[in-house]
Every structure is written in C-alpha cells, then in structure tokens.
Amino acid sequence: MRPVDNLNNLSQESCGSALESTTENNSESSDSDMELLGITDGDQKRIIQGLKRTIKRNQTKINDLAAKLTIADNNLATEKEKTKDKEDVIKSLKLSIDLIKDNTAQSLKITNCDQHKTKIDELIADIEILECKLKSRNEKISELEDKSEENEINLKQKDEQIANLESQIKVSLDITQKYENDLKDKDEQIAKLESQTKADAAKIKNLENNLSRYTLQIHSSDDNSNSRVYLNCTKMPLIQFVKLPNGSRFAAVFEDLPKAGPGWMLIQRRINGSVTLFGGSGSDYNEGFGDLSREFWLGSKKLNELTTNQRYELYIELVDFDNATAYARYDHFVVGSHAEDYTLTSLGQYSGNAGDCLRRGVSCKFLWQRQEHNGYTRQCNSQSINERVGWWNNTDCNLNGKYYNCKTILESADGIWWGSWNMNQRNSLKSCKMLIRPKP
Q1: Which of 146, 253, 398, 405 is deepest in the core (most CB within 10 A)?
Q2: Domains of the chain by residue range
C-alpha cells in the first residue's frame, strides 16, 4: 500500500471517530440544553440532521483532500519517468506535502500526528533517494554526452580516413586503368608482332624451300681437299661453309689477298677490342668465339682438324696506329690435337717483312693460362705463372692479348704486338688477322 493510501485511510478513520464523538457529545449536551431551553424532540432532530449535513460536508472536504493527495502521488510517479523535469516535480511534491500537512493539522487535528510525520519523512527520504538517482542519471547522461562527443570526433576522423582511402582507391584505379590501357597496347603490339612473326615464318619457310633447291658444290681431290664446301647464291659472298673431315660444317670468312692470291680463310681477327672473350677460358679458345664480321677466334679444335688432314699455309697481316702494314707468311702450318694441348707443331718456311716472331712458338702448347711446363727444355712464355695468355708463345709476339685503343709501348707481353717489327719496340697494334689456305 502506498503512503498516500495510508494517509487517506487514517484521515477517514479519524474523521469517522471524530464524527461519532462529536455526535454523542452534541447529543448529550443538546439534551441538557434543550431541557433548559425548552426545545422539543422535533427541534432536536432537525438540529441533529443539520449537524450531520455539516459533518457530511466536512467528510466531502476530507475526501477531496485525499483525492488531491492521490493526484499528487500519481503526478510523483509520472514525474519519476521524466529526467528533464525531476527537480520541478520534487519541488511540487514538497509543496503538496507541506500543504497536506497544514490542511490535515488544521482540519482534522488528528492525535496521531507523529505517525503521519513518519510517513512524510519516509516520503521525503524517498524523494531524497529519487534525487540521488536523478543525480546519478544526470552524471550518466553527462558521461554519455562526453562519449557522444568523443564518438563524433572519432566518427569525423573515420570519415576523413574513409575520404583519404577513397582518394587513394581512386588514384589506384586510375593507375590500374593506365596499366590496363598500357597492357592493352602491349597486347596489340604483341598481336602485331605475332602476326609479323607468322608472316616472317612464312617467308623463312619459303626461303628454306628455295634453299633446299640449291646444291652445294663440293670440291673434291685425292689429297682430301674436300674440306671446303662453298654455298651458292649467298648474300655475303665472303661467307662460305667449310666441311671438316668428320663431316661437320661451319661458316667461315674468305678473302682474296692482293699480294698472296685468292681463297684465304680467316682464323683470327682483331680490330677494336669489341670481343671480351680474348683471355677467357680454355673451352672458349677450343671451340672458338666472337663475331665473324668483327673480332673472332676460329677455334683450336677446328685448326687441328684442318691442318692435320691437309697441308695449309699461314698468312699474318699486321697494321699499327700509324697505318703502316707488314706481313708474315709460313708455308706449313700445323696445330696439334687436344691431347697435345693444341701444340704449334710446325710453321714451315718463313717469308715476309714483319719478322719471323712466331718461330719460338713451335713445339709450345696453346695456353689460355700460364703455368709451369714440366718436361720442357725451353721457356715458352716470358711472363709470370698463372697469367692468362691464349697463345702459343708470347716471348716474341702475341696476337690474342689485350686490345689498346691507341699506340702504346707495352711493359708486359699482355697486348697485341709483333716483336721485331716497328723499330724493335713492343708497340700495341691497331689491327691484325691470321688467314690459312690449302697449300697448292
């Protein structure tokens, strides 16, 4: 039961008891007064009815007060749910309670005023509790407002980050689109190249079909002179196919020398230092390397197979940086086998104006790296052990050494030079070439 209901019950009980006592007192006093005043029973009944009407009006007022108290209680319960108007509600309740206390004290003069005060104190305590809860809720509201502000700041930051990411994504999409466009262009270029490749392949096939109709003219003789095979209808008449005794073929450059006649095959050429494999590994020198149109070494293995199956002569042409020329010619050039380390077996007789500087290379191995020569009675290389050479003997000459772009007096044998020529100085050469042909 609510405090207001208790108050209403107490008010009604008090009012009832007060009415009964008042009626009894009034009856007793009225009887004695009536007797003194000579009032009849009829008059007495009318007076009692008047008093009852007065009592009823007072009861109505009390009920009105109780109804007001009930309305105040309902208003208090309603105001509890509204956080914004709590303070006004509390003030209103306090005023209503004070008013009820005053009206109750004045109208009823109830003897148990202390009990009502206790109830009022309980209501006041309840109000204080509500005030505490209201304060707590206000604090929570304040915290929520702070968190809301913080969330708004975070949300703003997130929005900025999202904007930045969207900007980066847009840039990435632009770059991706550019790459896709470039890729599309590349695909188109590839398609064009593939189409061109197919067309070129068709042309090559057509050329191969035409090439198959050409015949190789093989020059044969009793002394195994079929080692050379010429290719007809070639676009480069100086490039010809050569057939080795083992049946394999290779391309070679041929020249006609004004002073020595036609049909000379180049086995070595140095002109500008464009080939860096000079001074390389032994396998490079064995198989050959370079570019036939520029610098190259034919290969020690091919030289062995050619010169040991037929007699060849050797022609060496030299040019210095003053454009002075000289030559050396040998009539029986022979290179040993791989088992013999491609030793310079023979040179034959010398002729020319450059000097017989290769003579000391006879019986020397073709070395691509300097080393001790156990079992040899002569020194085939003049420089320190383990220095790269790629030559038979660099004591008097070296045509496979380092290329210098200008006239240089060499302090070591690592260069292109020919010993006794050019005022007996070891000067670097501008160019040189070695050629061979079968001895007539």
Answers
A1: 398
A2: 3-111, 237-438
Q: Are 267 and 292 in contact (CB under 8 A)?
A: no
Spatial distance between the Cα atoms of 265 and 357, rounded to a whole number of angstroms: 22
Distance CA 225, CA 216 (A): 15
- Around Cβ 102, how many Cβ atoms within 10 Å? 10
**How many other CB atoms are found less than 10 A from the CB of residue 67?**
11
CA 146 to chain centre: 42
Using alpha carbons only, give the angle 348, 353, 355 rounded to the nearest 5 degrees: 60
For tokens 């303070």, name the residue: 87
Q: Which H/E stretch holds residue 308?
A: none
Residue 42 structure tokens: 């009829």
Residue 367: the pLDDT is 79
DSSP 84-108: TTHHHHHHHHHHHHHHHHHHHHHHT
Q: Which residues pair with 228 in a beta bridge?
A: 242
Dist. CA 39–CA 43, nearest whole Å: 6
How far is residue 377's CA from residue 219's CA, in Å, rounded to a whole number?
43
Which helix (H) or strand (E) is 378 found in, with range? Answer: none
- How does pLDDT run across 172-199, given as a tens digit for each residue? 899 989 899 989 888 988 998 988 888 8
Q: Are 305 and 250 in contact (CB under 8 A)?
A: no
Query: In terms of DSSP bridges, do strands 344-346 and 312-319 run parallel, antiparallel, or are they unpaired?
Result: unpaired
Which residue has tokens 């509790």?
Answer: 129
**Residue of 308, 373, 377, 309 whose CA lies nearest to 346:** 308
CB 141 within 8 A of CB 83: yes
For residue 427, the 8-state DSSP code is B
Between CA 143 and CA 151, with CA 149 as vertex, the angle to 5 degrees is 100
CA–CA distance, 176 with 167 (Å, rounded to integer)? 14
Q: Which of 440, 435, 438 is nearest to 306 (CA)?
A: 438
pLDDT (0 to 100) of residue 404: 94
Which residue did the predictor score with more confidence, 91 or 13? 91
What CATH number was assigned to the domain covering residues 237-438?
Answer: 3.90.215.10
Write the CA distances from 87 to 22, 61, 133, 160, 169, integer angstroms. 43, 30, 12, 42, 54
Can you tell me whether residue 361 is helix, strand or coil?
Answer: helix
Distances (CA, A) of 51 to 33, 42, 43: 16, 14, 12
CA distance 429 to 55: 152
Whether the model clears a pTM of 0.70, i.e. scores above it, the answer is no
Among candidates 401, 393, 292, 412, which has minimal Cα distance to 347? Answer: 393
